[in-house]
Amino acid sequence: MNAVFRRALFALALALCCGALNAQAIDPLPFKDHAEETRFQQLTRELRCLVCQNENLADSNADLARDLRHQVFELMRQGKSDAQIKQYLVDRYSDFVLYDPPVQGSTLLLWFGPLAILLAGAAVVVVTVRRRSRAQAPASNQSANDSSPNDEGDDW
Amino acid sequence: MSRLVPFFAFLLLVALFGFGIWWNTRHDQREVPSPLIDKPAPAYALPKLDDPAQTVTREAMLGKPYLINVFASWCVACGEEHPVLMSEGQRVGVPLVGYNYKDEPDEAKAWLERHGNPYGLVIADREGRTAIDFGVYGAPETFLVDAKGVIRYKRIGPLTPEVIERELKPAIAALRKEAP
């Protein structure tokens, strides 16, 4: 039983591994060195595929994603900077292509909303704790020798 | 009173959740608003589908508003849209230019022969290079270009009679009003 399972696992690993190799082989780009390839991979990982919108350009098998990868590669070869390449795509496909949306009026809530909620939560905690300790302080002063704590003042 | 705080927080979350559902049913998740609206259409020079020796350019099309409809024989939604173009295409009042996107010319021609040709002119972008400049990411897409070559409206996805009535016709009417 265990052997069967192990063999199945091995086959699965092999299939996944070959799938990855295949994906590389289908779409070969003539990188001149490792640095260029790393830069390309990095850049396409930060760009969103428009067709299957939860995938980035590096991972997507969509036809358009392949075209855009080639376009990114060509722009790199033309000596464009990462920012210029991103701008090229934003001009055509809007900020949506960026996985990291820029900080601007329409994205303020997105960027700082979680922080605001966290701060609001912290404020609630601070206020609650202060109120409780204030409510308990006089009670514990009066019954300093009383061993059983008094819960009736508890607001919660 | 403060015992009710969690309850109100819960109600707030329910309201937020409901709003999210409502918003998503009203908006197409896949639709990416084009940054090209009210910007000049990108320069293009594309061969005609039926006569590749002839090239159509943005400059040659200036002077009159027209519609560019991105289609392909491999595109399923284009097949759904096609009857609408056949019946409504002539009635919107501006020329309809077909933009054959990443297609085999022979297959595109056969497709038009089989289903009918609603276009006055069909240009072919076999590699899909120019389509990137247009921000095309899924056929069918339709662009309304005004007489000055500025993109005024874009529809992503099939044109339906409702969309034509509600969005396209008012956009074309607005162009008419501007024209002297």
UniProtKB/TrEMBL annotation, chain A:
Residues 14-147 form the CcmH/CycL/Ccl2/NrfF N-terminal domain. Residues 1-25 form the signal peptide. Residues 138-148 have a biased composition (Polar residues). InterPro entries: C-type_cytochrome_biogenesis (IPR051263), CcmH/CycL/Ccl2/NrfF_N (IPR005616), CcmH/CycL/NrfF/Ccl2_sf (IPR038297). It comes from the Bacteria. CDD domains: CcmH_N (cd16378). GO terms for molecular function: metal ion binding. One of its GO terms (biological process) is cytochrome complex assembly. One of its GO terms (cellular component) is plasma membrane. Belongs to the CcmH/CycL/Ccl2/NrfF family. Possible subunit of a heme lyase. This is Cytochrome c-type biogenesis protein. It comes from Dyella marensis.
TrEMBL record, chain B:
Pfam families: Redoxin. It is found in: Cell inner membrane. InterPro entries: Periplasmic_diS_OxRdtase_DsbE, Redoxin, Thioredoxin-like_sf, Thioredoxin_CS, Thioredoxin_domain, Thioredoxin_ResA/DsbE_sf. It comes from the Bacteria. GO terms for molecular function: disulfide oxidoreductase activity. The keyword Disulfide bond applies. Keywords: Cytochrome c-type biogenesis, Disulfide bond, Redox-active center. PROSITE patterns: THIOREDOXIN_1, THIOREDOXIN_2. Residues 35-173 form the Thioredoxin domain. The keyword tRNA processing does not apply. One of its GO terms (cellular component) is plasma membrane. SUPFAM superfamilies: Thioredoxin-like (SSF52833). GO terms for biological process: cytochrome complex assembly. PANTHER family: THIOL:DISULFIDE INTERCHANGE PROTEIN DSBE. NCBIfam families: dsbE (TIGR00385). Belongs to the thioredoxin family. DsbE subfamily. This is Cytochrome c biogenesis protein CcmG, thiol:disulfide interchange protein DsbE.
